[in-house]
């Protein structure tokens, strides 16, 4: 009986620590950045820039220079949260989130579809039909 109780406790803890398939490091479509996707304490998924191919511009670390909030424009791009608030919606879909594009300083509604070592990241305004899909690739280390 004691063995059974210990086994149930172990399996319960193991399930709690199991990673979701989208968690980890992903290359953006151009392979100019690595985005680290993680599950926060609120059970939603976020992604932050973990690595940039071009970390420095004009001898200084790259910053969020296109942010519409002028007070944020000196914030470094490395560490910047670009995916926010995604909830799992089915087996391979994640929705209700947003994606921030530091190239133009705009935030878009976004859905993510997990396809093995690929993510289809679709940003859009209004309805999903009007948008753009980028394919991200899992970083193999």
Explain the overall architecture.
The protein is mainly beta. The protein has one domain: Beta Barrel (Lipocalin). It contains one helix and ten strands; from the N terminus they run αββββββββββ. An eight-stranded antiparallel β-barrel has the order 1-2-3-6-7-8-9-10. It has a two-stranded antiparallel sheet with strand order 4-5. The longest helix has 16 residues, at 2-17. The model is unreliable at 4-16 (pLDDT under 50).
Topology as H/E string? HEEEEEEEEEE
**How does the major sheet shape up?**
8 strands, antiparallel, barrel
Q: From the alpha-carbon coordinates, what is the Rg to the nearest angstrom?
A: 18 Å
Q: What's the pLDDT, averaged over the residues?
A: 90
SS elements, strand count = 10
- Proper CATH architecture: Beta Barrel
Strand content: over 45%
CATH class: Mainly Beta
Give the total of domains: 1
Shape: globular
Q: Distance N terminus to C terminus? A: 42 Å
Q: Might you state the CATH topology name? A: Lipocalin
In helices, the fraction of residues equals 10-25%
Give me the side-by-side strand order of the main sheet: 1-2-3-6-7-8-9-10
Q: Could you say which structural class the secondary elements and strand pairing correspond to?
A: mainly beta
Contiguous low-pLDDT stretches (5 residues minimum) are 4-16
Number of helices: 1
Q: Any descriptors?
A:
single chain, 141 residues, mainly beta, Lipocalin, eight-stranded antiparallel beta barrel, two-stranded antiparallel ribbon, 11% helix, globular
């Amino acid at each position: 009986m004691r063995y059974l109780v210990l086994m149930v406790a172990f399996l319960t803890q193991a399930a709690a620590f199991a990673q979701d398939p989208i968690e980890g490091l992903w290359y953006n479509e151009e392979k100019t950045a690595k985005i680290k996707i993680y599950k926060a304490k609120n059970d939603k998924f976020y992604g932050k820039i973990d690595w940039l191919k071009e970390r420095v511009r004009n001898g200084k670390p790259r910053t969020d220079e296109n942010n519409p909030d002028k007070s944020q424009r000196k914030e470094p791009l490395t560490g910047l949260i670009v995916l926010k608030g995604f909830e799992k919606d089915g087996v391979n879909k994640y929705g209700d989130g947003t994606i921030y594009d530091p190239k133009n300083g705009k935030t878009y509604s976004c859905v993510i579809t997990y396809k093995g070592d690929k993510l289809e990241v679709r940003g859009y305004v209004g309805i999903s039909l009007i948008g753009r899909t980028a394919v991200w690739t899992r970083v193999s280390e």
